[in-house]
Amino acid sequence: MGKLRAAQYACSLLGHALQRHGASPELQKQIRQLEGHLSLGRKLLRLGNSADALESAKRAVHLSDVVLRFCITVSHLNRALYFACDNVLWAGKSGLAPRVDQEKWAQRSFRYYLFSLIMNLSRDAYEIRLLMEQESSACSRRMKGSGGVVSGGIETGGPGGPGTPGGGLPQLALKLQLQILLLARVLRGHPPLLLDVVRNACDLFIPLDKLGLWRCGPGIVGLCGLVSSILSILTLICPWLRLKP
C-alpha cells in the first residue's frame, strides 16, 4: 500500500514537472492516467480499512491518558469515515455505482482526512509538551550542581538572566533559545515522534489543497505526499520508528 501511494504521488510530482518544462501533451496525459490507475488501485486495497480503523478506535478508548485517548480515538473514527467515503468513491469510479456524486463524496472524504490529521498533530504536540516538561525538570536538577549552566553552554544565572527583573527583549530571546534547544533535544531523542510530526505535517497539505483551504499546487502536494509515503514505508521496514500507542 505504501509503495502504491509513493508511486501515485511521484506521478503527481512528475506530471507537474513535465508541465512546467513543456513536455508533450501525450506524455502528460499518460502520467495523469497512470496516477489515476494507481489511485483507483489504492482505493480497492483500502476496502477493509474502515473496519480496521474502528477496531483501533475501540482499543484507544481504554488508554489511561485522557488527552491521548481523545486524540487517538477521534483520529481513528475520522479515518474510518474517510475510508468509508473512499469506498463510495471507488464504487463510483469502477462503475458499480455510476450515479455517485464523486465531487461531493471526495470533499467529504478529504474533510474527514483533515480532521484525522488535526487530531494526529494535536497528539504529537501533547506528547512533545510532556517530553519537554520532563526534559526541563531533568535540566533543572542538573543545573543545581552546575552553577546555573544548561548543557549546551547557555548560562541561566547572572545579570540579565531569566531571574533578573527588567531583562526585556534579551531575556525573551534567551527563553526562546532555550525552548528551541529543548524542542530539538526532545525530537532528536525520540525519532518515532519526529517522524510522526513530519509525516502528519506533510499529509496536511493534501486535504488543505483539495478542499480549497490553502491552494498549494500539484507540485507541493506531490512532493509532500511522496515524502509522507517514504516515511510510512520506513516505519514498516523499521517498526521501532512507529509512534505508540
From TrEMBL:
<feature type="transmembrane region" description="Helical">
    <location>
        <begin position="220"/>
        <end position="241"/>
    </location>
</feature>
<keyword id="KW-1133">Transmembrane helix</keyword>
<keyword id="KW-0576">Peroxisome</keyword>
<protein>
    <submittedName>
        <fullName>Peroxisomal biosis factor 11 beta</fullName>
    </submittedName>
</protein>
<dbReference type="InterPro" id="IPR008733">
    <property type="entry name" value="PEX11"/>
</dbReference>
<keyword id="KW-0962">Peroxisome biogenesis</keyword>
<keyword id="KW-0472">Membrane</keyword>
<keyword id="KW-0812">Transmembrane</keyword>
<dbReference type="GO" id="GO:0016559">
    <property type="term" value="P:peroxisome fission"/>
</dbReference>
<dbReference type="GO" id="GO:0005778">
    <property type="term" value="C:peroxisomal membrane"/>
</dbReference>
<dbReference type="Pfam" id="PF05648">
    <property type="entry name" value="PEX11"/>
</dbReference>
